[in-house]
Amino acid sequence: QVQLAESGGDSVQDGGSLRLSCEASGYTSSSYCMGWFRRAPGKEREKLALIDADGSTSYADSVRDRFSISKDSAKNTLYLQMNTLKPEDTAMYYCAADRLASRLLTGQPLYWGRGTQVTVSS
């Protein structure tokens, strides 16, 4: 069974940086597409960044200039580097995985982590 565990969420000041991690177990992560999503209070879940099995990446317009997704297949870990954080970035952040890129693209991957909270104060 695929298990995903996020870590690295914290409370930071406006303009700060954080690096989120997502450790995968129960499968070989290199054979999956993975991504990061977030959900802020009162808002719907937002797709932030995806990385395919071959390493190609894509980003939402709202974070393209500030966030970077990467993975370390040897450690079975996905990362999200977040720079120049803003109060509107405050949300619960989730990692996700699926063998099918199409389900990640449509926001319906099979496997989710439990989330890690990011809070940005001004």
Which characteristics define this entry?
122 residues, 7-stranded mixed sheet, 4-stranded antiparallel sheet, 11 strands, 49% strand
The best one-word shape is globular
Radius of gyration: 13 Å
Report on the biggest sheet: 7 strands, mixed
Query: What is the number of strand segments?
Result: 11
Helix content: under 10%
Number of helices, where a helix is a run of at least 4 consecutive DSSP H or I residues? 1
Structural class: mainly beta
Strand content: over 45%
- The end-to-end span amounts to 41 Å
Mean pLDDT: 94
Any low-confidence stretches, pLDDT <50, length ≥5?
none
**Strand-and-helix sequence, N→C?**
EEEEEEEEEHEE
